[in-house]
Amino acid sequence: MNPAYKSEAGRKAVAAAYADLLAHWPVPCESLRVPTRAGETFVIASGPAAAPPLVLLHGAQTNAASWMFEAAAWSADFRVFAVDVIGEPGLSAPVRLDLEGEAHALWLDDILAGLAVARAAFVGVSLGGWLALDYAIRRPGRVEALVLIAPAGIGPQVNVLAKFWPLLLLGPLGHRRLRDKVLGPPPAKLGADQQRLLDFLGLAMRHVRPRIVKIPIASGAALAALSMPILAVLGGQDVLIDTASIRRRLADLPTAQVLWLEDAGHFITGQAEAIHRFLKAVRT
Q1: What's this model's pTM, rounded to 2 decimal places?
Q2: Are 18 and 92 in contact, with CB atoms under 8 Å apart?
Q3: Which of 108, 102, 112, 101 is nearest to 85 (CA)?
Q4: Nearby residues of 103 by Cβ (< 8 Å), 6 or more positions away
């Protein structure tokens, strides 16, 4: 049994929804299978083959489909690689590695080798933000720029289940309310593809087993040693991570800038253009 899922029926439901999302990817793309020491890793590649490489790392309880609209925008100027993180509800190996030590950095080493990429910009959200940050700390020469969206690993985690556990007793209604607490209320108007993605995120939250782990916090010395350009995108209403603490810790880093969105929660949308500008500026 894949450890990411609560049941085999849930795995099949999420897999079917993911296949549907991949069929609606908004720009031409390739599906790649990259061998790594932790198992095969699925990657969606889009954008010109000769363009600067950009690696996208999603958060927990989802997969690379969560990047479909950002990947479409960024593919104009970058070769975008949206990675299915291992141990999450995608098409990569069902292995959840220890968050301590080099296991995830070695996994990313293998991915870059398989993609023939020596150095890339990285964008990570939540758990993916921690993966990108951890890699930048351990392999600074391989990270050209770093975009961290509501990242784990800099500020303390908030135990959202302890705070909102009664909602889990309310069945589907409670799950929807919990989703809105974590992701924020959905926009009033959505296109068909946007609604499809939002439905998928809700489906994954119902069927995917959350990682009940403590994310390692980067030391002050590790953060201070980072020399690549960094953009952190943080929401003031994040219920999962203490973003005010992240903002304070990054304030002293000369290479870091913070985009603070006071009314945003953990699931931050509408910032693809700002991130695109930052990534293009790094190239000039």
Answers
A1: 0.90
A2: no
A3: 108
A4: 38, 97
Q: Is the Cβ–Cβ distance between 32 and 45 less than 8 Å?
A: yes
In a domain? residue 275: yes
Q: How many domains does the chain have?
A: 1
- Exposure pattern of 70-89 as b/e (b: 16+ CB <10 Å)? bbbbbbebbbbbbbbbbbbb
- CA 75 to chain centroid, in Å, comes to 17
pLDDT tens sequence across 34-58: 999 999 999 999 999 999 999 999 9
Q: Which residues pair with 233 in a beta bridge?
A: 149, 259
The 10s digit of each residue's pLDDT in 52-91 is 999 999 999 889 999 999 999 999 999 999 999 999 989 9
Residue ranges making up the domain that contains 241: 8-283
Q: Looking at the domain assignment, is residue 141 inside a domain?
A: yes
Q: Map residue 116 onto helix, strand or coil.
A: coil
**Residue 65 buriedness (CB in 10 A; 0-12 / 13-18 / 19+):** buried
Tokens standing for residue 86: 């291992």
Dihedral (CA of 21, 23, 26, 28) sign = positive
Name 264's Cβ contacts closer than 8 Å, sequence gap at least 6: 184, 234, 235, 236, 237, 238
What angle, rounded to 10 degrees, do the helices at 103-115 and 127-138 form? 80
281 burial via Cβ count (<10 Å: 0-12, 13-18, 19+): exposed
**What's the CATH code of the domain at 15?**
3.40.50.1820
Q: How far apart are CA 150 and CA 260, in angstroms?
A: 10
User: Is position 2 within any domain?
Assistant: no
| Helix H or strand E encompassing 143 | strand 143-149
